[in-house]
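Exercise 3.2. Students should predict the tertiary structure of the chain below and write it as structure tokens, then compare their answer with the key that follows.

Predict this chain's 3D structure.
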Amino acid sequence: ESLIFSEESFVPLKYPSQGIHSFNKNIKGHIEAIYCGFESQKKWSISDKQKNSFLSVSTNLFGMDFVRKGIDTFIAIAEDFPQHHFTLVGNGYSGKKLENLTIMSEISYDELIDIYIKHQFYVQLSIAEGFPNALAEAMLYGCIPIGSSVFGIVKKRVAGFIPQAYSIPLYTLG
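Answer key:
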């Protein structure tokens, strides 16, 4: 739905109205959102979760994706909470090395599922996002979601945490 029309306020945008209807007012006909579905591949239990473990997944951990996917914020939070465990999954990270930050790349989908199962929280602090597949998959495997209030990430909290505005540090919001 957010790709059809949404009002964005997480980051200041020149055009806060987003989606196809915002940029092309002459569209005729009906546009309908088709939602993604996910099916669990493995059984898991809450006892599988490492307490105070945080996970974020992005294809690329460099370039534009570093900020767009919130990797910069994720690392800043890891720096400020050395007593907690953080895991980043993706390719090309060459930033700070922290004792409490594990970087994983070139993993199989089965390995990714095992990583979801072991983590308590999934963090998706994107400043732009279509449909957050990794967030949905992480929730399927019991991760508590922490997601920014943008585009395809939910606007109304049912469970988890949703920062309403971009700032470092986001975690000072409450």
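Discussion points: The chain has a mean pLDDT of 81. The radius of gyration is 17 Å.
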